[in-house]
Structures are given as structure tokens and as C-alpha cells.
Amino acid sequence: MIGSVLGIIYRFFIVNVVEVGLYSFFLKNREKETNINDMVSPFQKEYLHIVKIRFLQNLYIWLWSLLFIIPGIIKRYEYYFIPYLLAENPQLTEQEAFHLSKTMTDGEKMNLFIFDLSFLGWLILGSFLGGIGQLFVQPYIYAGRSEVYVCLKERKL
Questions:
Q1: DSSP helix/strand/coil, 102
Q2: Which 3 state secondary structure label does DSSP give 157?
Q3: What are the percentages of helix, strand and coil residues in the chain, rounded to 5?
Q4: Residue 93: which region, alpha, beta or left (left: phi > 0; alpha: psi -120 to 50)?
Q5: CA–CA separation, 18 vs 137, rounded Å?
Q6: What is the pLDDT of residues 10-33, one digit of tens each?
Q7: Tens digits of residue pLDDT in 38-75
Q8: Is the Cβ–Cβ distance between 100 and 84 less than 8 Å?
Q9: 3 state SS for the chain
Q10: Whole-angstrom Cα distance, residue 127 to residue 125?
Q11: Cβ atoms 53, 43 nearer than 8 A
Q12: What is the domain range of residue 96?
């Protein structure tokens, strides 16, 4: 029980913020060389704001999942780009972040789902290598998702 609570706290206060930093790193890396500081920048600015929005994102997805699994999956893809939006603009309000992500994913949720499924083989292969393969697969996934974000942002916003 204590382990579960600690895991949830760790997820909300560390992992969610690190993910925003990773997305920031990959978005900036598209245009210029970056450094490790881009990954920890969310801890230096707007930390609690990012924690709050990512908490709400996870909470809403969980609540929608209580209805059935499918609504939760749909909401997961509706809120897919919230971490990217926060990586580019940490000052976004909750309403702006949710609205922009919803606008970007409108009509694209199935495409995003198929895009994520395209990595399934790589994830399975990486797991067979004792997890070491994940060191190569995860950056590939983050880079691919960053490209999708930029394309949809240009097209939808």
C-alpha cells in the first residue's frame, strides 16, 4: 500500500515533469543542438504549474477510463499533446493546454493510436534485450512523437 502511494507521488511530482523536459529537449533538438539542461528546465520554472496540469490530465484520463476502457483511450489521445504544449510554453493555463491539445487531435486520434502501435515491435524487441534495448527505443519514440506534434501544430493551429 505504501509502495503504491509512493509510486503515485513519484509519478506526479517527478516523472510527469521529467517527461515535459524530455519533450522540450526533443522539440529544441529538431532545430539546434541542445544540452541536458533542457531536460531539467521544467524543475526550474513553473514546476508546480506543470505538476498541476499533468495531474489534471492523468486524473481526467483515469475518470474517463472508469466508464469503460475505450473512453479513457480516446481521452488519452485527446490530451496527447499537453506535455508538448507545456514544454514549449509552461505558462499556459489548464484551459488553454486542454483546448489546444483537443484542437490538435481533433480527427487525428486514430492516426495517433496507429502511430503508437507502430512502435510495438520495437518495444517488444527492446524488452527481449533485458531492457537495454529500451535505451535506444525510447529516444526514437520521443523523436517521432515530437515530429508528429510539430506537423499537427503547423496544420491545426
A1: helix
A2: coil
A3: 80, 0, 20
A4: beta
A5: 17
A6: 888 989 888 998 998 999 888 888
A7: 777 778 778 899 999 999 999 999 999 998 889 999 99
A8: no
A9: CHHHHHHHHHHHHHHHHHHHHHHHHHHHHCCCCCCCHHHHHHHHCCHHHHHHHHHHHHHHHHHHHHHCHHHHHHHHHHCCCHHHHHHHCCCCCHHHHHHHHHHHHCCCHHHHHHHHHCCHHHHHHHHHCCCCCHHHHHHHHHHHHHHHHHHHHHHHC
A10: 5
A11: no
A12: 2-156
Cell of 105: 487531435
Residue 111, SS3 per DSSP: helix
Residues 111-141 as b/e (b if ≥16 CB within 10 A, e otherwise) read ebeebbeebeebeeebeeeeeebbeebeeeb
SS3 8: helix
Number of domains in the chain: 1
Residue 133 φ then ψ, to 5°: -60, -25
Question: What pTM was estimated for this model as a whole?
Answer: 0.87
18, 92, 15, 95: which is closest to 60 by C-alpha? 95
For the four alpha carbons of 72, 75, 79 and 80, in that order, the dihedral sign comes to positive
